[in-house]
Each structure stands twice: as C-alpha cells, then as structure tokens.
Amino acid sequence: MTAFPTVFRSPHPPSNPLSNPDQGSSEHSIHPIQINNLTVTYGLYDALRDINLTIQPGRLTGITGPNGAGKSTLLKAVLGLVPSQKGTIYFGCHPLIKCQERVAYVPQRTLVDWSYPATVWDVVMMGRVQKTGLFHPFSALSRQVGMAALNRVEMGTYRNRPIGNLSGGQQQRVFLARALAQEADIFCLDEPMASIDQMTQSVIFTILRELANRGKIVMVVHHDLGESIHYFDDLILLNQVVITAGDRSSVLTRDNMATAYGISQPALTHPVTSSSSGG
Asked: Which helix (H) or strand (E) segment is 152 a member of?
C-alpha cells in the first residue's frame, strides 16, 4: 500500500485555471490513444494479451469485465506503471510514456494509505507538482487552480481537514480534485465508484461527462454492468484479451457477456430508452 500513488514527470508550463468546467480549451490537440499488440505478463501469467484498442477523445470510455480480467492492469499500462512484455501505446505520434504530464490518475481507494499525514489541500496540490517542479513553491496561479478544483468537487470547506478524517466518498472527491488540478488531457480512474455514496457518484460522473464534452480522454474501470450501459459512451469488455470494444449497446450483448464471464448473462436494458442489448 502506498501513500498517494501519482506519476511525477518533468515540469510543464501552467495554463489558465478552469474556474468553471466548461471554460477554456487545450493549447494542443488531443489525439486518440492507440494501443497495439500490448501484452503484460506477471511471472508466467498473461494479465493482458495482444490488446489492440483505440481510445477516442470526447468520449466516456468504461473498462469492464470479470475479476482478474486485467482492467486495472490496462490503466496501469497506459500510465507506465507496469512494464509491457510487448506492444506499444501511442498518443498521437508519440509514445504515451513521453507524454505522462498530460495524464491524470485516480487510483483505487484500497491502494491508498489514509493514515498518511496530509491535509485535503496537500493532496490536491500534488496535482500541480508536474507544472511547477517538485521543489518549487506553488505560484498564485497554481493555488487558484487547486482551489477551483476543490470547489468543483464541493470540498472547498474541507481544505484543512486531514485526509484520513474524511468519508470514503469525500476522499474520492479529493483525489478527483487532484486530477482536475493537474489540468491533464487524459484521465484514468480505477474503480472510482467503489463503496461511495450515491451523491458522490453523481458528482463524479457529472464532472467526467464535462471533461469528455471538452474533448478530454476519460477512461474508467467500472465493474457494474448495469451502471455501465447508463454511464458510458464506449465500453471495453476485457478478460485478459479484448472480448469486444465500441459503443455500449454493441458491447453488452448476451453473446459477448457469455464469452467474457463464461456464463449466460441476461441482456441489459438502457434505463432511459428501455431498449435491450440483445445478442
């Protein structure tokens, strides 16, 4: 278990703070992520095998599948946190590992040591380290960006609270605020909805939708199939290999779920249209 998982890279010039989520645009174009022939091996075990995917900007992309399917491993491979046995991950014409200052990560809550002596503000401002450098004081602009991010997740009044004294939902909001403060182009979230209250779920997915609407890449590991058809534009159905990927209605069919889970699954019904995803 680590204190606060993050990815520190070289400093990047700060951009304008997004005081509201619909304001501002990237100073650079956001390309798709292209994953080609990716294999990740733990010992003799293939956690992921021959993964070929294109992750589009401007779409909420969910990663789903059974336990042990490699969902978190796929995110960690994108983040450069696990080595690949073979394959490439590109962001435009550049290896993604060389663009990690443009990637924000919200880890699983179970991976975080919540006894670490840090305040809410300390955690959020970790998202600015890539902009300012590890040993440089935060500028007024960085503090403004951090406060805007904290207010966006409705946690501004908690800025001096020890992180370990928060509820699970509050902790998850703070880690999302850290990601927002980074002003990234790619957002990777690992089970952000696990064991949190319904209000926090709504706040988080509203923000993720805003990010997608602004053309960001948003990748979310999510295990609940029933919620997946409601929340996401695109889905990646994994079980060590890509079972299928694409528009949510084409992914969650009986045949695809039977292949992924090894058992017959009922077709899911979209909660708004009530249309069945039959196979």
From this structure: helix 140-152
